[in-house]
Amino acid sequence: MGVILVGPLVVRNAVSSMPLTNTLSEPELLRLAMLGDEGAFAALYTRCKSSVYRFALHMTGSPALAEDVVQDAFLTLIEEGGRYEESKGQVLSFLLGIARNLVRRAHRSALRVVPLVGQNEDGEDVELALESGDDTMAEVLRGETVGLVREAVQSLPVHYREAVVLCDLCDMSYAEAAAQLQCNIGTIRSRLNRAHNLLAKKLESRTQPSGRTAGGIIQGCLL
């Protein structure tokens, strides 16, 4: 693996440095990492990095910012891991909560997006997030399916986008997503259903094959 840098932490040859960590649970790895065990930290980083990066990427649309979120999230995890309670969920869920806060904090100051105000089909004012740049619409219209789906996901109001990213892209259960977003399972189901309907309309006639749901399209294109 080489070198992993997370704030002041430097982990060299991470995968091979402590093979026994492969048998430990994530809470055990976190406890060891907080005590300074580089092998445990590296194992935890390897297990969770892709999920955190995927979440940050699809929430922000920026690979560079997603990498920054990953680094800051793991640093925060080591600094504030004492707040983690195993009875309340997985370490990954706790880590995604950190990443969610970092994304929201960075959204208006660091993201390469243009905030727009519009209305959804219910007539409610919503904030839309589209990547800035004169060529955005041209790229969509050129028919790049992955880019089109990613753009459609990013154009969703934040509360719908979070449900899609957590459930469709991070494989969270409804219960885990509800805990993460501090709402009930029924709200998650409703948001996800509404988000899929909005996405289906955005992608209709261009990307959605007959018989496939919007959720299936998202997973197939963006995972």
Please describe the structure with a list of short key phrases separated by commas or semicolons:
223 residues, 2 domains, Arc Repressor Mutant, subunit A, globular, two-stranded antiparallel sheet, 11 helices, Rna Polymerase Sigma Factor, Chain: A, 4 strands, mainly alpha, 62% helix
Your description of this structure?
This protein has helices at 14-17, 26-34, 38-60, 63-80, 91-110, 136-141, 145-154, 158-169, 174-181, 185-203, 214-222; strands at residues 3-6, 9-12, 113-119, 125-131. The chain has 223 residues and is mainly α. It folds into two domains: 3-108, Orthogonal Bundle (Rna Polymerase Sigma Factor, Chain: A), CATH 1.10.1740.10; 113-222, Winged helix-like DNA-binding domain superfamily/Winged helix DNA-binding domain (Arc Repressor Mutant, subunit A, Orthogonal Bundle). The strands form two sheets. It has a two-stranded antiparallel sheet. Strands 3-4 form a two-stranded antiparallel sheet. Strand 1 (3-6) and strand 2 form a beta hairpin. Helix 7 crosses helix 11. The longest helix is centred in the first third of the chain and has 23 residues, at 38-60.
